[in-house]
Design a protein that fits this description.
With 264 residues, the protein is α/β, with parallel strands linked by helices. Helices cover 49% and strands 14% of the residues. The protein is built from eleven helices and seven strands. A seven-stranded mixed β-sheet has the order 2-1-3-4-5-6-7, sandwiched between helices. The protein starts with a strand and ends with a helix.
């Protein structure tokens, strides 16, 4: 089957971004909000509505009474497997999940170098892999079980990076430095840490006082956070997890034990 027509159900951030990038590489794209009409379905239909609405949209598509034989229907949730589309699979649809590992904003207009995790019908995945290549991205096949854990990893890596940035702002905000200035100063630092991970594993990429075995600096940080108990608790917990990355070759046992006593 040659994919020519793509239907997108859900004109939100992701749906809008897909509409742009798919059109740019030559697909005929139709964007719709809700549908019960079988004729509106293209060669591939991407359901880009919020997770809680996927099942409802799937039911409406299936209620049209027409066969979906040979048509690909894929939802784009990281949390659910393709099984949420089983009612469409029963009508002959090739069902799958097509989830971008990318923080999609209202300005996203490219998926180049991003990864998509794909799960579902083998025939559907083969065609979806071709679409991924056409938009300059990469893909990884996962099982339903792997997909669920990968989504947890994605939340940790993406969403909580933003949360950590906010915590950093809360720690060192002042009347003399605006939040924007402070964030602009911290972003290159965050970026350099991520860049280090491009060629190194986490233990090798780690820098900072714990990586150096710098007990005095860690002690000072703990004192500075005494009046911020919630942030102090987070600093300690993250410090303990960071300590697990340190190899014996980098830091002596005695130093690691002293750091552990400080952070526990």
């Amino acid at each position: 089957m040659e994919i020519k027509n793509i239907t997108i159900i859900g004109p939100g951030r992701l749906g809008t971004a897909f509409q742009v990038v798919f059109s740019e590489v030559g697909f005929v794209v139709k964007m719709i909000d809700k549908t019960t009409d079988r004729q509106e379905v293209g060669d591939v239909t991407f359901i880009t509505v919020p997770d809680g609405s996927i099942h409802e949209v799937s039911k409406k598509l299936a209620s049209g009474g027409s066969s979906f034989s040979g048509k690909i229907v894929a939802h784009c949730s990281g949390a659910y497997s393709s099984q949420i589309l089983d009612n469409l699979a029963e009508q002959g649809a090739l069902t799958a999940c097509f989830h971008p590992l990318k923080a999609v904003s209202k300005t996203t207009r490219s998926f180049k170098a991003s990864f998509f995790d794909l799960e579902g019908s083998e025939e559907a995945i083969v065609h979806l892999e071709d679409i991924v290549k056409k938009i300059g991205a990469q893909s990884i096949r996962v099982s339903p079980e792997e997909k669920e854990l990968l989504h947890v990893s994605a939340v940790m890596a993406s969403n909580y990076t933003v949360t950590l940035a906010d915590l950093a702002l809360r720690i060192s905000s002042s009347n003399n430095i605006s939040e924007r200035e402070l964030l602009d100063a911290l972003l290159p630092l965050m970026g350099s840490s991520i860049e280090n991970l491009s060629g190194l594993n986490p233990a090798e990429a780690l820098t900072g006082p714990i990586a150096r075995g710098d007990i005095q600096t860690v002690q000072k940080h703990l004192l500075l956070l005494q009046d911020k108990p919630d942030l102090l608790a987070i600093y300690k917990h993250l410090g303990l997890l960071t300590l697990e990355l340190i190899t014996d070759e980098v830091t002596e046992h005695t130093i690691k034990f002293r750091l552990y006593d400080l952070l526990k």
